[in-house]
Design goal:
Elements (H helix, E strand, L loop, with lengths): L5 H24 L9 H21 L10 H26 L7 H28 L3 E7 L5 H7 L6 E8 H6 L9 E5 L3 H13 L3 E4 L3 H6 L3 E5 L2 E5 L7 H21 L1 H13 L5 E7 L5 E7 L25 H8 L7 H7 L3 E3 L6 H10 L12 E3 L1 H5 L6 H13 L3 H14 L13 H6 L3
Parallel strand pairs: 1-2, 1-3, 3-4, 9-10
Antiparallel strand pairs: 5-6, 7-8
């Protein structure tokens, strides 16, 4: 079986998605627009579909076959197609005299999803049949267990781990990296890491590394030339005023729309929680930008006396005995988070940002990890980089790194990408595992 170039995969994928859309456009929507028969309009609509489909599939990592699980890729394709078709439907609506029937578009989307499902499965099998696992070495210092994580996530098809070395062994004996194609660095200090980085670059070895806090902060540096020298400038989170204004407008618009659409669900959940005994809502002090305290509002999912004896502790997930019957259901469906749209309207939170921690837990974490306070540079969010790419039980150090990646490069496109990716993980059980679950994995990932 021959290898299919990535560009060819992307082109064929777009063409396959384009066929149902063009049929739907020509056979139904095109003749119902006010510009019927216009070739220019057809070209515009089809061209817009191609651009949007490619953009959203790129942003949702739909072509990362080598490192993502097949279910994540398929979900990414489905979500990208749904968003693309929704935007195109709005465009067709603007070109039509009356509101067009959404059923043909929905049917086209279902056909696209079916084609995408089988196409993705085929490409996944082709990739691993035509690409041998890369000879891989794991180099560690303060963090161990990367080899076990690679196996746990099913990436042994991509990375064949031949050895695991302490960083000192590699620095003293460079020949152990001979014929190696990939190196993973885990918890290596900057001096030793830079030596390995230079060596791998010169020897054409792929390098994957877990960054340190300073590395992530440097991502947002401004490059400049001063004093006839190349210089980078770093500063505290300070995005453009225009970005903050548009971000706030988006927060208000999306929150109002969400509360309006979800109002029936809001009422049903409130009644269900109330009937379970105790108040429907639960208020809790959290921290947002610059350490400001606010009260977050959620539907109550635990007993009223949940922390009477334990104090402030994280949930242990599905096995937590404090969770009520109704609470277990609304947590599974993320319905307990709906009232936070009220916090967003008030300005306490944003749609996207670091998730707010409780003051008591923040204080405890900072005793072990003082840098954790750096997350408070930006306003807290309903969802965030760490929520999308991490899990509930991801270590605090890793959450810090991911939140700093978001803070380092604020942009509306990044906000949009995170919101879209949030939809994809809503049905992913792993994203809400409690701190009592996957303890072995947690130990492997500790700093």
């Amino acid at each position: 079986m021959k290898k299919i170039p990535l560009l060819a995969v992307k082109v064929i994928n777009i063409l396959l998605m384009l066929v149902p859309f063009i049929l739907c456009w020509i056979l139904y929507y095109e003749r119902r627009t006010s510009t019927v028969g216009s070739k220019q309009v057809s070209v515009l609509v089809i061209g817009t579909f191609i651009v949007l489909c490619y953009y959203f599939e790129q942003k949702l990592d739909c072509f990362r076959i080598a490192i993502l699980r097949i279910r994540d890729i398929i979900m990414g394709h489905i979500l990208a197609l749904m968003i693309t078709d929704a935007i195109i439907y709005i465009l067709i609506w603007m070109l039509s005299i009356h509101l067009p029937n959404p059923v043909p578009g929905l049917c086209a989307w279902l056909v696209q999803c079916g084609i995408s499902f089988f196409w993705t499965l085929g490409m996944h099998k082709n990739y691993f049949r035509t690409h041998k696992p890369l000879k891989t070495v794991v180099v560690y210092d303060e963090r161990e267990g990367m080899d076990l994580l690679i196996h746990a996530y099913g990436l042994e098809k991509r990375f064949e781990i031949t050895s695991v070395y302490h960083v000192d062994e590699v620095i003293e004996h460079w020949d152990i990296l001979h014929d190696i194609e990939v190196v993973f660095l885990c918890g290596i200090h900057s001096g030793q890491r830079n030596k390995i980085l230079k060596y791998c670059t010169s020897e054409n070895i792929q390098l994957f590394m877990i960054p340190r806090v300073a590395d992530v902060m440097m991502q947002g540096s401004e490059q400049m030339h001063m004093l006839h020298l190349p210089i980078v400038k770093t500063e505290r989170y300070n995005p453009l005023t225009e970005y903050l204004i548009v971000k706030r407008l988006m927060d208000v618009a999306v929150s109002l729309l969400a509360l309006l659409i979800l109002s029936p669900v809001f009422l049903i959940v409130a009644i269900a929680v109330k009937s379970d005994g105790g108040p429907a809502f639960y208020k809790q002090k959290r921290l947002t930008k610059d350490g400001k305290v606010f009260e977050i509002v959620k539907f109550r999912s635990m007993r009223v006396d949940a922390e009477k004896y334990s104090g402030a502790v994280l949930s242990a997930g599905e096995d937590d005995p404090r969770i009520t019957k109704v609470g277990r259901i609304i947590r599974m469906c993320r319905l307990d988070e709906i009232p936070q749209f009220i916090n967003i309207l008030k300005g306490d939170m944003s749609l996207v940002g670091p998730r707010p921690e409780r003051p008591e837990l923040q204080e405890k974490i900072e005793k072990e990890l003082p840098e954790f306070r750096l997350r408070l540079q930006a306003k807290a969010g309903l969802t965030g980089y760490a929520q999308v790419y991490g899990k509930y039980n991801t270590t605090f150090y890793d959450k810090l790194l991911m939140d700093l990646m978001y803070i380092a490069k604020p942009s509306l496109l990044e906000d949009l990408t995170i919101m879209l990716a949030t939809v994809r993980i809503l049905m992913n059980k792993e994203s809400t595992e409690g701190v009592g679950e996957c303890e072995k994995t947690l130990e492997l990932r500790k700093l």
